[in-house]
């Protein structure tokens, strides 16, 4: 039986159209999901939209639409984008779904039964943009004496009757969790931040609001809606059928990985495990806080006028060059920058000129010089064996790095193996062998065919659409595109015996170009 693997992204606020940060996180999660599936795991991959809270209610008021209409419209944009990005999610959750209200209320009741909820009065600072409470000590002063949160967003003084969660009670159990499971929060820099925060002591958390009603109603206290983060975090359980004891809940909970951005680590690594402990549920295995994507080194914002629509990037460069660039260019976990020039440079150098060209040259020479036929009976020499070993090593490097979410490092190992193949082509010069030693040319081309197939399977989680078009041209069946196929030594013989012939190949990694004017991106 395949080992189950449950991965989630953050659920996104649909108070506007999706931005490049949403695309980045979801692509990374998709690469992980595809990688785990290719490794033989039974994967459940969930994403969605976070539709309640003051931020959504305010945005709807500003646009003079109902919150429901705003969510319906914007959530569709997220779903469309994820379709275009080839995101292989199993479940897209919307927190306005009735099943989610039911799950959130059940979790609330479990925390209440455990004596962790009480009614009191909240007085303190709240940031609507972050949907977060802050201590006075965390604030700084902005222009005109405005108080700002650590994220640089304005805060306002809030006074209202509120339910509280006994977060203070969980400081010690949380610290024990972090100590016993060093991998629970990653990367280490984020782990250290969270540990310092919890070591400073935790205050009870205000978990309901009465000043607006766009949220999940508190059971037995209808004038309260839950604090949006209480219901938002519950989405990870809702998607598995909670509170019913479903087979999915049994199989996939606790989650293997909550993939989120660095700004919301506190919610996932402090509040969420505390809620779960209170409700008597197991905590997730890992929370990974990735870095932020910057546009030429700057945070995108409407006031700077540098907001990029990810759909435009896909239309400009194609989905796979974008996916490859994001995974290759940025050390996962750290902040990273992107620009149209960087996407073009990376994609052309590695996808088009290196791997694409290798595949295209190989298939085209087999088509032209060997009548498209594959030959399983070849005798390899030392140089051939060395290349095959090099490719195996590159793929092993990719797999080891991807296991620890070091995508850039993994793709580095992979591209080195691609370079080795191209050096081999240049050295062997099969076009010259065609006249001098056609038998040796056949060996060289067959060795290359094997290398291309293996390298294609290895990189498939990153650029799935293009790789599937390539593997179709190579006669590799759908059922033989996972990592287990890399260990199967019989595939080549079976393919040769099947009488398969390479047809005139079509390149799958075309060169991409910069838009005519900067404004076009
Ligand atoms: O925080 N680069 O939603 P959100 C990389 N609804 N990642 C970025 C980014 C950037 N420039 N900007 C945002 C929320 N993100 C909550 C989550 S989960 C129970 C509730 C990431 O739409 C951000 O860190 O503001 C988060 O992980 C995700 O995009 C959604 O952000």
Strand and helix layout:
Elements: E1 4-9, H1 20-38, E2 42-49, H2 54-63, H3 67-84, E3 91-94, H4 98-113, E4 117-127, E5 132-134, E6 140-141, E7 147-148, E8 156-165, H5 171-180, E9 185-186, H6 188-199, E10 205-206, E11 208-209, E12 217-218, E13 221-226, H7 228-238, H8 247-252, E14 257-261, H9 265-279, E15 287-290, E16 293-295, H10 310-317, H11 319-329, E17 336-338, H12 340-369, H13 382-403, H14 407-428, H15 430-436, H16 438-459, H17 464-473, H18 491-497
Parallel strand pairs: 1-2, 1-14, 2-3, 9-15, 14-15, 16-17
Antiparallel strand pairs: 4-5, 4-8, 6-7, 8-10, 11-13, 12-13
Bound molecules: ligand ME8.
List all distinct small molecules, including ions and cofactors, that are bound in this structure. Answer: ligand ME8
Count of helical regions:
18
CATH superfamily of the largest domain: HUPs
Number of domains: 2
Strand percentage: 5-15%
Describe the largest sheet: 6 strands, parallel
Overall, the morphology is: elongated
Overall helicity: 40-55%
Give start-end ranges of low-pLDDT stretches.
none
Order of strands across the biggest sheet? 3-2-1-14-15-9
Beta strand count: 17
User: Whole-Å distance between the termini?
Assistant: 46 Å
Q: Radius of gyration over alpha carbons? A: 26 Å
The CATH topology of the largest domain corresponds to Rossmann fold
Structural class by SSE content: alpha/beta
CATH class of the largest domain: Alpha Beta
Can you name the CATH architecture of the largest domain? 3-Layer(aba) Sandwich
Overall mean pLDDT score? 96
């Amino acid at each position: 039986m395949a080992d189950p693997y449950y991965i989630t992204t953050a659920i996104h606020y649909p108070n506007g159209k999706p931005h490049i940060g949403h695309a980045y996180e979801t692509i990374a999660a998709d690469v992980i999901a595809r990688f785990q599936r290719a490794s033989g795991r039974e994967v459940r991959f969930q994403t969605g939209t976070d539709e309640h809270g003051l931020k959504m209610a305010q945005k709807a008021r500003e646009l003079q639409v109902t919150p429901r209409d705003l969510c319906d419209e914007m959530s569709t944009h997220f779903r469309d984008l994820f379709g275009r990005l080839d995101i292989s999610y199993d479940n897209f959750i919307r927190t306005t779904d009735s099943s989610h209200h039911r799950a959130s209320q059940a979790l609330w009741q479990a925390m209440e039964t455990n004596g962790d909820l009480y009614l009191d009065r909240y007085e303190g600072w709240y940031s609507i943009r972050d949907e977060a409470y802050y201590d006075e000590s965390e604030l700084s002063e902005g222009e005109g004496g405005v108080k700002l949160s650590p994220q640089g967003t304005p805060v306002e003084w809030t006074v209202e009757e509120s339910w509280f969660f006994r977060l203070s009670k969980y400081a010690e159990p949380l610290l024990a969790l972090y100590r016993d499971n060093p991998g629970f929060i990653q990367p280490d820099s984020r782990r250290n931040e969270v540990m310092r925060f919890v070591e400073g002591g935790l205050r009870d958390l205000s978990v309901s609001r009465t000043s607006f009603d766009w949220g999940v109603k508190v059971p037995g206290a209808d004038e309260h809606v839950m604090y949006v983060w209480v219901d938002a975090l519950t989405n990870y359980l809702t998607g598995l059928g909670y509170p019913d004891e479903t087979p999915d809940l049994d199989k996939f909970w606790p989650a293997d990985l909550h993939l989120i951005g660095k700004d919301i680590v506190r919610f996932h690594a402090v509040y969420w495990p505390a809620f779960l402990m209170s409700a008597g549920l197991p905590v997730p295995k890992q929370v990974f806080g990735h870095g932020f994507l910057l546009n030429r080194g700057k945070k995108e914002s409407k006031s700077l006028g540098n907001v990029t629509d990810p759909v435009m990037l896909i239309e400009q460069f194609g989905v796979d060059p974008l996916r490859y660039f994001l995974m290759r260019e940025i050390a996962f976990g750290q902040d990273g920058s992107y620009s149209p020039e960087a996407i073009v440079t990376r994609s052309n150098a590695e996808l088009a000129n290196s791997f694409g060209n290798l595949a295209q040259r190989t298939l085209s020479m087999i088509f032209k010089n060997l009548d498209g036929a594959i030959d399983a009976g070849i005798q390899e020499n030392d140089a051939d064996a060395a290349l095959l070993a090099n490719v195996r090593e590159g793929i092993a490097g990719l797999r080891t790095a991807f296991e620890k979410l070091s995508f850039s490092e993994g793709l580095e190992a992979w591209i080195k193996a691609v370079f080795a193949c191209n050096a081999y082509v240049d050295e062997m010069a099969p076009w010259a062998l065609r006249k001098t030693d056609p038998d040796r040319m056949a060996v060289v081309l067959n060795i290359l065919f094997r290398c291309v197939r293996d390298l294609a399977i290895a990189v498939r989680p990153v650029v799935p659409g293009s790789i599937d078009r390539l593997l179709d041209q190579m006669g590799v069946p759908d059922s033989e595109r996972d990592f287990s196929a890399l260990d199967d030594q019989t595939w080549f013989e079976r393919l040769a015996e099947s009488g398969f012939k390479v047809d005139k190949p079509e390149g799958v990694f075309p060169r991409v170009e910069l838009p005519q004017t900067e404004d076009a991106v």
